[in-house]
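Training component of the fellowship. As part of building independent skills, the fellow (R.M.) carried out the full modelling exercise for a liganded target. The chosen ligand was zinc ion. The inputs are recorded below so that the supervisory panel can assess the work.
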Amino acid sequence: MEKFLQKYREAGLKLTPQRIAILTFLDGNTGHPTAEEIFAAVRETHPTVSFATVYNTLQALKTRGQLTEVTINPERKHFDPNTEPHHHAMCSECDKIVDIFDDFSEALKLPKDVGAGFDGFSVTGNHVEFYGVCGDCTE
Ligand SMILES: [Zn+2]
Ligand SMILES: [Zn+2]
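Fellow's submitted model of the complex:
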């Protein structure tokens, strides 16, 4: 078994051949694919895969904290296998979503933890969304 699959098995995810194909497509994927794009990619090697299987697998991964749902695009949900905290920027021309790993806590005065005047609300993370035009579309 491929090494990267081990963590999913340890998290209790049942690894069927179709799920392995989904996880293989997602592994290291920084393109923030939609469920439809993941479905299309997996169907090339597994023609019998259903959209429901893809959708259910994405939900199972999300529930286990191994997949992030990126909601920067109000029209479509995108998925990100990188669960390290980071931010996103979306191009208004081509809808491309790119990762931003800078920490804006200081600049934006974002509270790092509890008791920061949120009426007892515990802050567990933050996500900053940027909109603009990407390098490819600017040329
Ligand atoms: Zn663009
Ligand atoms: Zn991302």
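The panel noted the following from the submitted structure. The radius of gyration is 17 Å. Residues 51-63 form the longest helix (13 residues).
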